Amino acid sequence: MTVRVSVVAALAALVLLVVIFELIRSRRLHERYAILWLVTGGIILVLAVWRDALNVLADAVGIAYPPSALFALAALFILIVLLHYSTVISKLADQNRILAQRLGLLENKLDKERRRTEVG
Amino acid sequence: MTQKITTGAHQAVDPRLAGLRRIAIVPAYNEVGAIESVIAEIRAVDPALAIVVMDDGSSDGTAARALELGVEVVRLPYNLGIGGAMQAGYQYAREQGFDLAIQVDGDGQHDPREIAKLVEPILEGVADMVVGTRFAGGKHYRPPFARRIGIQIFAAVVSLIVHQRVTDTTSGFRAVNRLGIALFAADYPHDYPEVETTVLVHRHRMRMVEVPVGMRTRATGRSSITIFQSIYYMLKVSLALFVGLFRRHSPPVEGE
């Protein structure tokens, strides 16, 4: 029964790793944003296969059914990835705003220059 | 106040303003119906006051109308919100070396005839930022109940933080000197900036003074705030204020 859980979890982690690899390979995902995902997939894979480690971990945090610890850990990593993405989005929004402001000021300058040369 | 010189058709312009390069920053988002009278009123008050309209991604031809009227226009490529638009305005003022910047909303709710009052504390050298308040000094402005409660809560909280009585934290009718221009060009809060700028100014050890002014109800257009935005506003500003208390602030910026 629990062996089946391990196999499914290991397969899911493998698929995740392959998809991430393919996304990096085809340049659709920057390495810097893939690292957290790779760590997530890697840890799930290791714990799915290496049952002793999972048992020790589950026991340490008081989870009776070890595969639950596996999914709790996966959920934790997904939270971390999402939080990381929120910071990335905030940074992008800031950079976007700065670009928009610069563009507006530059266009104003350009228009002014154009009007000046047309008059002169 | 000192004596004033009357210049023809225009209202008296304070002689202390001579030699001070001053600019009205007019944020406008879809204000094609109001922008013309706003600009005319500003010009009537002080012909030497430069005007820049910050067109915050309007789709109704606000920028074109303003250009026809011969004022400077900075067109932002998309709607940044009042915070981003005003910061760009202060960046413009800093780049162009202005000494005094007055924020006048493009919707006509601010009466440019009150600009003299706003500028007074800066000319006296007692303030770096002056905010026109609708509440102090016996002005009879009564906003709707929910809004009034919100304003009062923020006024109380901000007063505590800045150790100074602040009555109107949502007023966007304000004037700043070179120090204020430099600060806001470099650092300006997003979304709904009015409450946070008051704290920001305090944290940079700059002086803020409130001056009672009359304000009008909106001339045209719609208020940009809906009920959900109000809730978001309360949450966002509260969070910003709270986190801001734990943020380290650089020493006061020097005017360039």
Keywords:
heterodimer; A: 120 residues; mainly alpha; 4 helices; 90% helix; B: 256 residues; alpha/beta; Spore Coat Polysaccharide Biosynthesis Protein SpsA, Chain A; 7 strands; disordered N terminus
Structural classification of chain A: mainly alpha
* Mean pLDDT figure of chain B: 86
* Strand segment tally of chain A: 0
Can you identify the CATH class of chain B?
A: Alpha Beta
- Biggest sheet of chain B, open or closed, and with what strands and sense? 7 strands, mixed
- The strand count of chain B comes to 7
Number of domains of chain A: 1
Strand content of chain B: 5-15%
User: How does the overall form of chain A come out from the CA principal axes?
Assistant: elongated
CATH superfamily of chain B: Spore Coat Polysaccharide Biosynthesis Protein SpsA, Chain A
Low-confidence stretches of chain B: 1-9
Provide the CATH topology of chain B: Spore Coat Polysaccharide Biosynthesis Protein SpsA, Chain A
End-to-end gap of chain A: 87 Å
> What count of structural domains of chain B?
1
Task: Write up this protein.
The complex is a heterodimer of chains A (120) and B (256). Chain A is an all-alpha fold. Chain A has one domain (2-119). Chain A has 4 helices and no strands. Chain A has helices spanning 2-25, 31-49, 51-61, 66-119. In chain A, helix 1 runs antiparallel to helix 2 (31-49) and helix 2 (31-49) packs antiparallel against helix 4. The longest helix of chain A is centred in the last third of the chain and has 54 residues, at 66-119. Chain A is elongated. The N and C termini of chain A lie far apart (87 Å). The mean pLDDT of chain A is 90. With 256 residues, chain B is an alpha/beta fold. Chain B has a single domain (15-244), classed as Alpha-Beta Complex (Spore Coat Polysaccharide Biosynthesis Protein SpsA, Chain A). Chain B has helices spanning 35-45, 62-68, 82-95, 115-123, 145-162, 178-186, 194-203, 227-244, and strands spanning 22-28, 50-55, 72-75, 100-103, 129-133, 174-176, 208-212. Chain B has a 7-stranded mixed β-sheet with strand order 3-2-1-4-6-5-7, with helices on both faces. Chain B is globular. At the A-B interface, helix 4 of A face strand 3 and helix 3 of B.
